[in-house]
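Good morning C.,

I know you're traveling, so I'll keep this short. The sequence:
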Amino acid sequence: MLHGVDLSHWQGDVDFKLLRQAGVKFCFLKFTEGTTHIDKRAITYLRDARTQGLPTGAYHYYQPKYHPIDQAEHFLLTMTGHEGREGELMLPTVIDVEVRASSATLRSGILAFCEHVEQARGVTPIIYTSPGFWRSYVGRWDECVRFPLWVAHYGTSYPSQFHPWVRWHFWQYTSAGRMPGIAGNVDLNLFPGTWLDLLKLCKRDQNGEELSPAYDRIQRRSPMVQP
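The tokens, ready to paste straight into the viewer:
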């Protein structure tokens, strides 16, 4: 198991060196929400995470009241701008699904968003959600199974399994974690594999070559990536 964090502007100033020294191996950053909002800390966090060699991914907080393609374009443009300034995101993109709507609205919107981002980025997005939310508002939907799952489930020794996924890629096990380098609470996550397994999730290069597990290929993009 590898330990990681996910961050938004609510965490304020973050010392990524202390996070790395405490054993954090990856992080996800809130980049966008809806069709106009950009998290004000995202670009600083990306720069500092890359400086410490932490593989980093971006997530979009999905708002079903807005058109999914408009949200996807906002997310894509923001990622392109931030990567142009601070360097490439190595982990897959994420859609954060936790705002209520009808099952039909959520299913069509999630699929449209994910397919649009996947086509643009060349990497299959991850769906973040909780078992209770998914069962209540999305329901039994087979088509989403090809998107990896990041499950949020607190107060349990192991996250609940829910249809259609039989495994998870990331587990957010608390929203009230404490870590050196962060003054307040922070979301804590687990990845059920090794460092090399994590690198296998990293995006492919322009030639379609997977950026793992060879360290020399990873280092061309982030020279300080830490095992």
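Safe travels,
E.
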